[in-house]
Specification:
This protein has 895 residues and is mostly helical. It has a 5-stranded parallel β-sheet with strand order 2-3-4-1-5, sandwiched between helices. It has a two-stranded antiparallel ribbon with strand order 6-7.
Length: 895
Amino acid sequence: MIRKRDSRTAMIQRNNTCYTASAKGLTLALISFITFYFILNKTPVDVFLGVYTVITAIILLSVGTCKNIRMLLSSILSGISIMAGHVLAKLACGCTIENMISHMTLVRILLLIGILIEYMIIFWLWHASAIMEQQRRLHRKPGERLELFPERTDDLERLRKYLKTFGVVGVNGSWGSGKTFLVDEFTRKERDKYEVIKVEPLTCNMDKIDAYLFKKLENVLWRNRIYPEYSRRLQRLMANSGWTDKIYETLYPDASSDLTAFEGFCADLDKLENPILLVYEDLDRISDENKDQIAKLLDLTAKLLQHNVKVIYEFDLKKMAVLGYGYDYIEKYIPYTMNLTPVSEKKLIKKALAEMDNVNKDLRSEDFDYLFVHFSIERLLQETFGFPLKLQLSMNNPTPRKVKQFVSEVNSTVGFGQYADKKNWRTVIAFYFMKHFFRGIYDELAFEGDMIDEIRLVLPSDESDLEMSYTVMELVAGCKLGEARSTTIPGEEERVEYGLVSEDIKRMLLEGRSARKNQIVRQNKDKLGLLILMGYKFKFQQDEADQEILMQRDAANAGAGKRSGNVLLNQDKELIKNIEYNKKISRLIKNLYANGRSEFTNAEAIAQVFISDVLEEDQRPREKRWRDFLVRACQGDLFKDNRTVFRWGENDWVSLFRALNIYVDRDTFAQSAKEDIIERALDFYFAFSDNDELDFDKIVIFNYCSIDSNKIFIKVLERFRNLKITGNMNGEKAYRDFLREYSRHAMKKGYLQRYDFFKLEMPIGGYSERHSGVLREYLEECVRLVDGTLKEGLYPAQGEQELELVKDFYEKNIEVVESSAEAKQTGIKVVFSDRTEEEHTDEEEFKNLSKYVPKDADGAGENQVTREEFAAMLEESYSDGKINLREYRGLLRNF
């Protein structure tokens, strides 16, 4: 029964469409007839055809695509109607069909052929459009058309039931929650049962909303071939009264009754086959100055409900209350309100991915799962805080629209540049998770420094003015300090150090009875959880802080004349990797916030510049490439906002090889690419450096060259064998790491059967001369093991050479260990401020002038001149353009 009714309704709608199109065509034909019979009756046929052909050609050139086929077909209908009116006008003027044919000129024939070709083009586009639409439907992927969530299917059924029973329904939900999508799905499925009118108060002129509404209703009546007798009268009554209205009232005195006109209009609505469905979208998004118009809209719509009209209102009750329309007021006009069923975050993400046109092939809904599981704070925080803590973050107002925006932004980022590495996806997802669902925390951050240093947790207090905030690492340091304590230095005021205890941390992270305190606690937990989701490791951050303290102490000892502990050089690679891990996360976050910030750490940036400007270029001399690189590195002219990694007091080559080791130690690097970079860097270093001594810096550099490559292993051993011993390094951790790393590789590749790694551990309590014997025993044992392998003879010809090289390696290290002096340490190999390393305007002139600069303490130069004479010489050279201002100032300052 229902299907028969729907079929009949569809047939009526198709017939009405045909009738309307026919009426439009006849109207145009009539207008054309009147025009060409009474006004343009002397217009030649060829002129008419020429104008018609040109206009049709302009239309084709402007919008002649399959996408505009409806407009093109409409233009054909209009053109045929106008042409029919013109032909009838000619016939009425006495012209016959026989005369038209007999007077056919070449121009007229060409114009008719042109019109025929234009029509054929339009019909071909129509045919192509139909084929494309059919192909699109055949190749539509499952899920390509937006579908409702299973939970919302039940909501749809309730909407259908409420509308059928009550006639007016309110759909309550926050912005972006899917109200409009649900209603659109309802109207799509029920389109044969209703005449749907959508009204968007946000985009309408609310001062004339009533006239706008009646205009929409009038269009429905016209579409169903019902003459809206009272519509224009109502629209006049609702408009501002003017002199035209006075004339209208004089001519039609009975029409001035708004009650009579409204009743007549409602009677016309009752004539409709299908009821009208008014859909008011986002009623709560109206501007403040027009909020009073909501009452008028509700009242007017309520009067229409008894006359073949049903209504769906979309709004957010909370927003309506803010506008001054509380539930008690709303209930009078919308007594039946339904709420949308919440949808889980995982389903929202899965659907958002399914609806996207271009999804990164590796991005899956499972990549987002870590956001919604319980996770514990890491061991460092548990031990420091004194209690375990589990966290779980949930989306704040996870509407389908907001989740889709979140997933879309993630999808647009991953898969490109640094974000092609899936290890960085966790940070990307967590960052946009914070941006879209924790906007308050996001807006607090400046993103100038590291996020781990900008996120601050609040310690609740009874007085908000006394509340203190801390970074997570400040909490760790405060907990280590413990209770507040005071220290007094003679001659200075008492200084109080305020620490933190476990109870303070509990107040920050555990909820209690106070609503205000619980709000602070929830925000603290969200902040801590976001840092963990970003991927930050607090243990690594603490390691970096500890290293900075050790380096400060080491610098103080060196300043006091004590032996340096070489803290920076003795860092093991795992520690460097861990410290770099957090720096990388911070760099990614700052780049995601603003693309003008670099996504590379300083180490990665300087390694890339060295590879591109020094290793991969061969146009400039080697020395110039290196000098230009140093200048660029010191000036911070690297990549976006990256800065140099070179430290004052540390060998530049050590810093560079540390950066190269960080750069190549990535899964995205092929082993062959790692070998190529390290090999070329080593060759460049030894070709550039004239130092053939085995100093401590070279041992550190060799450590950074260890990348599990036999090719590099052999190259380092060959370089090591040719260096001159300068002393022992028995007390340096980096030297023991060097022996351990290369022994591990020797065993892995079969050069060494085993090695006693425990003998390479740094002695507890520090190194002393008595421990050198353990190192010597270890190396002697390695020599015996390699010698035994050589005697067995089970190796190829090249293997014998490599075994001999390994044996020489351990024998030479025995000489190093037994050396009585301490090995040299190069320190700063290239000083950036060294003017002799720079290019000058005129090298010969600068060299001659430099001879007058005193080189010893008594102020004697090669040619004794006074300061005034030297200044005059500089003035002359400067005037001749042989020195620049910097060179002038430098020479005069050094005189």
